[in-house]
Design goal:
Chain lengths: 320, 264
């Protein structure tokens, strides 16, 4: 039982690093209303870039930062493809993702994975500095990073620029009428999102001392699942920073769920992707299912609308 | 002020759906004009507005506003000069943002958006005063999400947003057509109040002939992408719906008169 608890704590720990991915997906999926599949590629990009740089002797902090920047470039690519070249958002994301697969292998010098053996990472810095266990160092570091990112996001989306991005996800036509360059706001949001996703990949790779070209597979779905789990526990009245914290919490819960499912032998680890997909389908279909059952509400509204229109016509007629 | 010179717009060129939406339109709008635009479905009214605001680029012709050539400027740059309200009340506001956030977005129309706070304390007081003018009680609900408001409330808010920073010109695209008669009247009155107060030059599309006669100092009638009739001043004031219908029949043929125009 002790080891079970241990693995749960380990999962929660990892969940906090995955929370950066969830926050990145939240920006595109919820704020910008853009299903961005670049995530799969940029997560692996972050991981591959970091391990490649660290193993060639670059400082871990700098490597991680460069991975973040590389993620932003990936977001920029998808953004340009969809805004300037008018490629459909989903396809633009897929194209960047596929291109990144080859790029990631190039980055790792032709290898499909690199292990970090006895090299320093951001996590070992923390271990050595505070003289604490690896687990504890990971927790401290991830709480710190996620905290900083949430604070930065809270600030940024409260500024004029951030507000313009939120408005773009809400009503593009209005935005352009109010002088917002929606191409730019979309590109910027995609850059921030993919930067965070790459940062998540960079942290995960350092935590597991391993970077792999396939590590981003399913990233978008994992991110979505975390967002959706977080949202089921939050109230719409929450201030923005608390919502973001709950997204991070969603990511932790998701990791813990995985650990429980795997360690209790209900399902194998291979079934997790199926389970996640089903979870997301249910969550996304919920509004539709609700109206199917309660249904009459929207029908009633339609009828009212029709009545309103006819009243308009009749009224006008009588006046004339 | 705004010079529209021989503009044409063809949609879906070379396909079976090819449509000449505007066919050599010439129009000069003077400072302080309130122009109403009427015409049947597909007459080119909305296209005219969309071409002015930059939603669509013209295929031919020029648009000059105060010596500034707008013809090739993108929509978000032209937004500096134009306040716009759309037919669909959902289109003019951002539903998941607060009333005050929407106003703050409108307050920065045509300005650079940087990393300052999206909304400041002094602004909030200004918005509160402005909202009072709508007489809808919205000044006490500044943090309410716009999505919770009724269509009429949203349209009134959209109108306020379009005029919050005085535009060179206000473009109204059948902005009361989707509202019930009572609300439509209220929004129409509000339009008059907001435009007259600071004398905003306005171009208003309507399918309601009575409104077209009642409002403004000029009226233009469009058909098949052309301006077929123009009237202004005293002559416009004495105009009646029957006169308009007669003009329409003369210029466009009786089959062009739609039920919607007659019933509205």
């Amino acid at each position: 039982m002790g080891s079970f608890l241990q693995s749960i704590i380990g999962g929660a720990n990892q969940g906090l690093l995955w929370a950066l991915l969830a926050l990145g997906v939240f920006i595109t999926f919820r704020i910008l209303d853009f299903a961005d599949l670049t995530a799969e590629g940029s997560f692996a990009l972050g991981g591959c870039m970091t391990v490649s740089l660290i193993s060639s002797g670059i400082e871990p902090v700098i490597s991680t930062f460069l991975a973040f920047l590389a993620g932003m470039v990936a977001g920029l690519t998808t953004g340009v493809l969809t805004t300037k070249l008018k490629i459909a958002p989903i396809l633009a994301g897929i194209l960047t993702m596929i291109a990144l697969y080859s790029i990631n292998i190039r980055i790792m010098g032709g290898a499909s994975n690199i292990g970090l053996v006895r090299t320093n990472t951001i996590i070992t810095y923390f271990e050595n500095f505070f003289h604490i266990s690896r687990m504890r160092a990971t927790t401290m570091l991830s709480v710190l990073i996620v905290g900083i990112i949430i604070a930065l996001m809270y600030w940024f989306f409260g500024t004029e620029k951030g507000s313009a991005i939120r408005a773009t996800g809400n009503n593009e036509k209005m935005c352009r009428a109010l002088g917002i360059n929606t191409d730019n706001t979309k590109i910027l949001a995609l850059m921030i999102s993919n930067g965070l996703i790459a940062l998540s990949g960079a942290m995960i790779a350092q935590q597991q001392s391993f970077g792999d070209v396939g590590m981003g597979t399913g990233a978008i779905v994992i991110g979505l699942a975390s967002v959706i789990i977080g949202e089921t526990f939050m109230s719409q009245k929450f201030p923005f920073w608390l919502k973001l914290s709950f997204i991070a919490l969603g990511s932790v819960i998701y990791r813990v769920l995985i650990i429980i499912v795997i360690t209790t032998d209900i399902l194998s680890a291979d079934d997790m992707k199926l389970l996640t997909a089903v979870l997301i389908i249910i969550a996304l279909a919920l509004p539709k299912i609700k109206t199917a059952f309660i249904g009459n509400n929207s029908k009633k509204r339609n009828q009212q609308q029709k009545a309103l229109l006819s009243a308009d016509g009749e009224n006008g007629n009588a006046e004339d | 002020m705004l010079r529209i010179e021989n503009i044409s717009k063809i949609f879906n060129i070379g396909t079976i759906n090819q449509k000449q939406a505007l066919d050599g339109v010439n129009l000069y709008i003077n400072e302080g004009d309130f122009v109403t635009v009427i015409g049947g479905n597909g007459a080119g009214k909305s296209t005219l507005l969309n071409v002015i605001s930059g939603v669509h680029m013209v295929d031919q012709g020029e648009l000059i506003l105060d010596e500034i050539n707008l013809t090739k400027l993108p929509e978000h740059i032209r937004a500096k000069y134009f306040g716009r309200v759309f037919q669909d009340p959902l289109m003019g506001t951002a539903s998941s943002m607060e009333i005050q956030e929407n106003l703050a977005l409108a307050y920065r129309r045509g300005k650079f958006r940087g990393l300052n706070w999206a909304i400041t304390h002094s602004e909030k007081r200004f918005y509160q005063e402005q909202l009072k003018r709508l007489d809808l009680g919205l000044e006490d609900r500044m943090t309410t999400k716009v999505g919770l408001l009724s269509g009429g409330q949203r349209q009134a808010l959209a109108l306020l947003m379009a005029t919050l920073v005085k535009p060179r010109m206000l473009l109204l695209d059948e902005h009361t057509a989707a509202l019930d008669p009572k609300t439509a009247k209220k929004v129409q009155d509000l339009t008059l109040e907001l435009t007259q107060e600071t004398n905003i030059t306005t171009l208003m599309i309507t399918h309601n002939m009575k409104d077209a006669i009642k409002f403004g100092n000029r009226l233009i009638m469009m058909h098949e992408g052309r301006v077929i009739y123009e009237v202004e001043g005293e002559e416009k004031k004495s105009l009646k719906v029957e006169d308009l219908l007669k003009k329409f029949e003369q210029n466009a043929g009786s089959e062009a008169i739609t039920d919607r125009m007659l019933l509205a």
